[in-house]
Write a structure and sequence with these properties.
By secondary structure, the chain is α+β, with helices and mostly antiparallel strands. Helix content is 28%, strand content 27%. It has 11 helices and 16 strands.
């Protein structure tokens, strides 16, 4: 059954109480010109299938009474599900805990209201009252890449898709899987696309997961087949996991017309979530160890034997040669595009004394961080960078570098990155 989100009338007391909590459920955008809908990340407890049949003096009064009864019935169902009594809770307390009402089906008469409703309870408030706030066990954070195939074309976030919208509508509060659902804005279309799904290379996957704060990848796939324009639609769903795109389950659903496409996709999302939860319980969603961050190998430490006569020498030791000091620095640099990453790393490696230069945190369109191993004092590296036209800020082992936009003092342009020292 298609779940319709309904904004409650603002003049009703219950609606006003819910507005104060900031948890209203609003209608989804249907216009393709509007931006992609952000995912529902409220994490609310959801109770669905609450039946109400009430009468009132007016249609609005009957609806208000029906929502009140739905709150009470939903609270009893939630308490029973979580193993608590839940008795003795007033309507005012329920008003503070309810974050939204989902209308699954309703019939409104002049003085009668018959409906099947869903109730969303704030996890923080309801869980604290039921004593289960900290008992939920969830998976490591999983990055969701919803891939839709339609008309022979595969799309993720290249443009707004029905499958991406369905995942944005789905509420994950009752799921044991910790989903990370990108909004489809910014660099999402470039980093997460149909081509990336088929690339098993761990290096780039590690960079993407670090960008989104995830530990693993989930790829729910749907292939839509339309019998004729406006006619039946068949959806073939696949639940896939990991950088190797491993298939966990596959099933098909069908609706009689294209008007039921949203209901088809919502049902597919719910069933795929159940598949992932079952796979998590059976141990099939274990995180691939190759996706963990691999730090660059540390330089070997060479221990040299000192001459015996130095063992009894006294006095102040002489200065240490620059080449005997080894430093590891974190250097922040601008990365407007992928080419800037390779160019900056190459420029860094051209500096004498630099052993390694590897980007450890990538932020395309922002500021990335490079880990640099240098045989010398950090101040010497700062001087070498400035001599090559870089603007250097910071001190110690943390530096911020930018390309200098003005010629150096005296009117002489700064030397190029490939200029030799001396």
């Amino acid at each position: 059954m298609f779940v319709r989100r309904f904004l409650r009338p603002p003049y009703m007391a219950l609606a006003l109480a819910l507005v104060a909590t900031g948890g209203m459920v609003v209608a989804q955008a249907d216009s393709p010109e509007q931006p992609m809908t952000s995912a529902d990340g409220s994490g609310s407890f959801e109770v669905s299938g609450v039946q109400v049949d009430v009468t009132g003096k007016t249609a609005d009064a009957a609806r208000f009474a029906g929502w009140r009864i739905a709150q009470r019935k939903g609270w009893e169902m939630l308490a029973k599900r979580l193993g608590s009594s839940g008795a003795g809770v007033s309507d005012s307390t329920l008003d503070a805990m309810v974050s939204g009402i989902v209308i699954e089906d309703e019939q409104i008469g002049p003085n009668r209201y018959v409906a099947r409703l869903g109730v969303l309870f704030s996890r923080a408030r309801a869980g604290g009252l039921l004593g289960v706030a900290g008992q939920a066990t969830r998976s490591p954070p999983m990055l969701v890449i919803p891939l839709q195939w339609s008309g022979g074309t595969g799309q993720v976030f290249e443009q707004k898709t029905d499958w991406q919208e369905a995942w944005g509508r789905y509420r994950t509060g009752n799921s044991a899987v910790d989903y990370i659902r990108p909004a489809g804005t910014g660099p999402d279309a470039m980093l997460l696309n149909a081509g990336q799904v088929g690339r098993p290379g761990r290096g780039w996957w590690r960079t993407i997961l670090d960008q989104y704060g995830a530990s693993d990848i989930l790829v729910p796939v749907v292939r839509l087949y339309r019998q004729w324009p406006g006619g039946p639609v068949v959806g073939v769903f696949e639940a896939r996991h990991g950088p190797d795109n491993r298939l966990i389950a596959k099933f098909s659903l069908r609706v009689g017309s294209s008007d039921g496409l949203d209901a088809l996709l919502d049902a597919g999302v719910k069933r795929i979530d159940e598949t992932y939860q079952s796979a998590l319980q059976s141990g099939m969603l274990e995180t691939d160890s190759s996706l963990a961050y691999v730090p660059p190998p540390a330089a070997p430490v060479v221990i040299e034997d000192l001459p015996e006569d130095l063992g009894t020498a006294t006095g102040t030791p002489g200065p240490v040669a620059t080449g005997d000091v080894r430093s590891t620095l974190s250097i922040q640099f601008d990365t407007p595009g992928a080419g800037a990453v390779a160019a900056t790393e190459a420029a860094m490696r051209n500096i004498p004394g630099v052993r390694t230069a590897l980007t450890s945190s990538l932020a395309l369109g922002g500021v990335s961080v490079m880990r640099v191993g240098y045989d010398g004092d950090p101040a010497a590296l700062s001087a070498a960078l400035e001599s090559r036209g870089w603007q250097v800020q910071g001190s110690g082992t943390t530096l911020r570098i930018r390309r200098g936009g003005q010629p150096s003092q005296g009117g002489t342009p700064a030397p190029a990155d490939n200029a030799t020292s001396g």
